Fold this sequence. Notes:
Strand order of the largest sheet of chain B: 6-7-8-3-9-10
Shape of chain B: globular
Strand content of chain A: 15-25%
Number of strands of chain B: 10
Helix content of chain A: 25-40%
Shape of chain A: globular
Radius of gyration of chain A: 19 Å
Largest interface: A-B, 36 and 33 residues
Distance between the termini of chain A: 32 Å
Mean pLDDT of chain A: 92
CATH architecture of chain A: 3-Layer(aba) Sandwich
CATH topology of chain A: Rossmann fold
Number of helices of chain B: 9
Mean pLDDT of chain B: 91
Low-confidence stretches of chain A: none
Order of helices and strands of chain A: EEEHEEHEHHHHEHEHEEHHH
Helix content of chain B: 25-40%
CATH superfamily of chain A: P-loop containing nucleotide triphosphate hydrolases
Distance between the termini of chain B: 45 Å
Number of helices of chain A: 11
CATH class of the domain at 7-104 and 174-256 in chain B: Alpha Beta
CATH topology of the domain at 7-104 and 174-256 in chain B: Rossmann fold
Largest sheet of chain B: 6 strands, mixed
Largest sheet of chain A: 6 strands, mixed
CATH superfamily of the domain at 7-104 and 174-256 in chain B: P-loop containing nucleotide triphosphate hydrolases
Structural class of chain A: alpha/beta
Order of helices and strands of chain B: EEEHEEHEHHHEHEHEEHH
Oligomer: heterodimer
Amino acid sequence: MKNSILEINNLKVFPDNNSRLKLVKNISLNLKKGKTTCIVGESGSGKSLTALSVMQLLSSQLGMSGSIVFEGVNLVNLTKEEIRRRRGKDIAMIFQEPMTSLNPVLTIGYQIEEAIRVHENFLKTELNKRVEELLNIVGIPKNRINSYPDELSGGQRQRVMIAMAISCSPKLLIADEPTTALDVTVQAQILNLLNDLKIKFKMTMLFITHDFGVVEDIADDVAVMYQGEIVEQGTVLNVLKKPKHPYTKALLDCVPDPHGKKNLKPIDYSALKRAME
Amino acid sequence: MKILLEAKNLSKEYVKTTGFFARTSSSIKALDNLSINIKKGITLAVVGESGSGKSTLAKSLIRLIELDKGSITFKEKNIRTISGHELKVTRKNIQMIFQDPYASLNPRMKIIKIMEEPLKIHDIGNSKTQYSKILNMIKRVGLEEDDLSKYPHQFSGGQRQRIGIARALILEPELVICDEPVSALDVSVQAQIIQLLKSLQKEFGLTYLFITHDLRIVRHIANEVIVMKDGKLIEQGKTDIIFRSPKTKYTKELLASIPGNLLKRK
């Protein structure tokens, strides 16, 4: 496809010692350039495994098959060194828990600097300027450059993670539940920041979440995953307002409605199974 | 409507000392002269961001932490001054459901032991009546008799929260404090637990103090809301009214942050 930056074809993920058990079952997904695609689903649906496959960061006990084509290159065929050169530069990732993703004994300035040094040959003064510029972009005061992660709030830590992720101007940013651990007001700030960055740097985003509210705020396209499969995909408007698959409908019925108009309906799995047959 | 619990001018300050010989100290007011009433049979939601004092409030009501100032009246008794037998009876009447169902069940105890413990502590019934009581309750929350001989790690997060609910309700409390009981759960499981809490409330005439940071859930479960910030009460009222016409800037900001609501695009 012309506009797509990443094409996942027939991706399967399975435990190495039991390749018949599929954790991700034959999924295909195209990410359009400059758009945000959300993968939404319950725990265990395979959304994080899909993201980790793209980064080639799957656990060594898991195997995968299929192809992941990023700008015409199949990432699956690359050597470790070749993938390392792309990881963090072309494709960057931010995780759910900013506290466990940052090194507690290094200052945030050093950690952002490190992210750049791996890929770019900058002079020390250029490096400093770039770190300050990044802190400015993500909205952290310059004087926090020598702070340690534990001196920052949860929202600020996630901003540091975002600064590291965008430090080499990646073309694709993968965000795995980046706001799940945050307060609702902070979540709104981080979602706005990511949306601004996407537009400003023409980034493509693969955004993983289980919260349809977040999907509504940030997605252009949506893929709904259930038990390792994509059961429905389309534009955010189509999937949220005119869901076709029974699972999408059932999952939407579980989402609490801020207007209090509709009743909460837990998923009736046996009815769902019948509907899916 | 009858008032079940009346808390007046609650204050709690945490002092943090740092520096050489702990000479510098700073303090945080977790509760700052806060007064609330909980009416019998309703669900009162407490909302606020982390650090707003919601959990300090919950813990102070069952005296898991001691307050600096204030009074808490529950069934004509001041919770802050009672002790011994009276405190024990009061604690039986106010039970708590916790946020993290992984951390709040002892991993080395079978479910039957977890359920028996509160009955033994409060000396309710004999082993035969205790067993039938436990069986009824565990079935009521959607588990089976076989589950009683299992350990907590054999259950999913949602099932563990059901066990936590059964343990809280086995003592037939009047007031149940729910401290973010669904925050750690998937949206589909969250919907199940909320429906369960609602039906249990109807059946047993329970009063809930429901702590959450998710305003969408408040809309589904609460009759009344209080909004907290920095240990202070910012706004209180009926859920419908707070959502329809919030008065303070802070409540407006919270409502505007509800996901699915903020960019107002398309």
